[in-house]
Design brief:
Strand order of the largest sheet: 2-3-4-7-6-5
Distance between the termini: 16 Å
Helix content: 10-25%
Number of strands: 8
Low-confidence stretches: none
Order of helices and strands: EEEEEEEHE
Strand content: over 45%
CATH class: Mainly Beta
Shape: globular
CATH topology: Thrombin, subunit H
């Protein structure tokens, strides 16, 4: 059963992952929506219901700016983990929406 409220977009973006303030590493996204993303990482590295922060850089006129998205790991597969954003009314979420609108391809 599909539980998403927003359209997924195929989009590879390098993101950083923090768990409890500790750096876990970087990985690529497989797809992104305004409500969450799928991270191509080892599923055992992030357990279901873990609270994490996903970071991404967005180029700007004065260099790149780093954004942090508080997230919840909602499921895992052999290919990675799906995360849901915990807050959608932040500057980071607005920057992600702009990035999706400019560069992502909707999935069918």
């Amino acid at each position: 059963m599909e539980h998403r409220r927003s359209t997924r977009h195929e989009f590879e973006l390098t993101v950083g992952i923090y768990h409890r303030g500790t750096w876990i590493g970087t990985c690529q996204t497989k797809d992104i929506s305004t409500g969450g993303m799928f991270l191509q990482t080892k599923p055992e590295s992030l357990k279901r219901n873990s609270l994490i922060e996903v970071t991404f850089d967005r180029p700007g006129s004065v260099g790149a700016k780093r954004y942090r998205l508080p997230s919840l790991v909602v499921h895992g597969t052999n290919a990675g983990v799906g995360v849901m954003f915990r807050s959608q009314n932040t500057e980071a979420h607005a920057a992600l929406r702009q990035l999706i609108a400019r560069e992502a391809t909707p999935q069918h």
